[in-house]
């Protein structure tokens, strides 16, 4: 089990139940961190590379730790490792040995765990200490190991189209991800975050790998959508979420790297097919252009203010974990955290009535 989440990871074939308990401990809705690459660049890292943020695992691990700490300071309950684009195949293509590549994957998880330990230490001694309470309650923090899609490894933008071509089968995806998943799981994260999943086939590959490799760490499946109804490939989001629902090792289902304006409808659609906690961590509303590797403001894109003003609505719709993806930063996460805590204070009574603390609200 992970070292930070109290009792987290010990679950009897009910990963979703374990995550619900954590969400309750976090105040009814957990705060997920924001974009890693954006912040690394902000701190001077050069990410013009196929390895993207994973490049910093080699060149600047201290920057990664700093960004994790910034997100913890901003109120994150879950920090995500810098392994989204870190793959054994990607590192080997750059001349690293298999052993070195696997060590870098482990390092991504360990850096996040170090940041959590530093943060917890500061909390007990320093400015984060809760005043006026006899026993200050630490904010629960989990470390999620990020697993990017096959498209993220290809670095050709295909995680935003879901089109891997006919030659790529579910078996191709399973053999691509198998060893990486095992190495990340062995590094001891509290969660495994399968992110920016662009199609149903990759979700099926992940579900089968979790079973076949007997991965006992709760996972979440997060899809990306461009139209609010389907994953990037065009597979209906309900079918994608149903794959996650049918796998007992999956703790939560959601969407990330999706425009904020699409998120509300996606939460409602996902909740039609699963009662597992729903995670949403949209991007800033800008659009990624694969050809130029740039983000551009899209028509109808939400500003940061709009993004944060949506948080209450997402929670009302049933989101249990809320954070940010690309082009969001610690300021976004701080605003999300404040918005959620304001919501929680406003409807404290509702939560007291919940059977297990998870907001099982009627979807109106
Ligand atoms: Zn993103």
From TrEMBL:
Species of origin: Leersia perrieri
Known cofactor(s): Zn(2+)
Source organism superkingdom: Eukaryota
InterPro entries: BHMT-like, HCY_dom, HCY_dom_sf, Hcy_S-methyltransferase
Binding-site residues for Zn(2+), renumbered to this chain: 257, 325-326
GO molecular function, one term: S-adenosylmethionine-homocysteine S-methyltransferase activity
Subunit structure: Monomer.
Catalytic activity: S-methyl-L-methionine + L-homocysteine = 2 L-methionine + H(+)
Task performed by this protein: Catalyzes methyl transfer from S-methylmethionine (SMM) to adenosyl-L-homocysteine (AdoMet). SMM degradation (by HMT-1, HMT-2, HMT-3 and HMT-4) and biosynthesis (by MMT1) constitute the SMM cycle in plants, which is probably required to achieve short term control of AdoMet level.
Identification of the protein by name: homocysteine S-methyltransferase
Keywords associated with the record: Amino-acid biosynthesis, Metal-binding, Methionine biosynthesis, Methyltransferase, Transferase, Zinc
One GO process term, biological-process aspect: S-methylmethionine cycle
Domain Hcy-binding: 18-340
EC nos: 2.1.1.10
């Amino acid at each position: 089990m992970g070292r930070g989440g109290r009792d987290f990871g010990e679950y009897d074939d009910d990963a979703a139940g374990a995550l619900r308990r954590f969400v309750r401990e976090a105040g009814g809705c957990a705060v997920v961190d924001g974009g890693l690459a954006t912040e690394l660049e902000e701190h001077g890292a050069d990410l013009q590379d196929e390895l993207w943020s994973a490049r910093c695992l080699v060149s600047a691990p201290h920057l990664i730790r700093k960004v994790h700490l910034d997100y913890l300071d901003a109120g994150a309950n879950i920090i995500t490792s810098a392994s989204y684009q870190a793959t054994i195949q990607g590192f080997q293509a750059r001349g690293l040995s298999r052993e070195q590549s696997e060590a870098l994957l482990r390092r991504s998880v360990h850096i996040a765990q170090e940041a959590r330990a530093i943060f917890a230490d500061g909390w007990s001694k320093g400015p984060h200490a809760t005043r006026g309470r006899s026993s200050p309650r630490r904010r629960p923090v989990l470390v999620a190991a990020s697993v990017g899609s096959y498209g993220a490894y290809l670095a050709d933008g295909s995680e935003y189209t879901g089109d891997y071509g006919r030659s790529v089968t579910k078996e191709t995806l399973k053999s691509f991800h198998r060893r990486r998943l095992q190495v990340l799981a062995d590094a001891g994260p509290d969660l495994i975050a399968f992110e920016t999943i662009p199609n149903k086939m990759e979700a099926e590959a992940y579900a089968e790998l979790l079973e076949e490799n007997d991965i006992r760490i709760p996972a979440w499946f997060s899809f990306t959508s461009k139209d609010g109804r389907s994953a990037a490939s065009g597979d209906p989001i309900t079918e994608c979420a149903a794959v996650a629902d049918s796998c007992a090792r999956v703790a939560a289902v959601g969407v990330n790297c999706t425009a904020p304006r699409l998120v509300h409808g996606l939460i409602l659609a996902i909740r039609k097919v699963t009662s597992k906690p729903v995670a949403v961590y949209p991007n800033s509303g800008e659009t990624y252009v694969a050809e130029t590797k740039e983000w551009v403001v899209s028509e109808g894109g939400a500003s940061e203010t709009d993004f944060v003003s949506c948080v209450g609505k997402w929670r009302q719709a049933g989101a249990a974990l809320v954070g940010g993806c690309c082009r969001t930063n610690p300021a976004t996460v701080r605003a999300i955290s404040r918005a959620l805590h304001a919501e929680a204070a406003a409807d404290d009574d509702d939560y007291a009535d919940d059977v297990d603390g998870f907001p099982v609200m009627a979807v109106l």
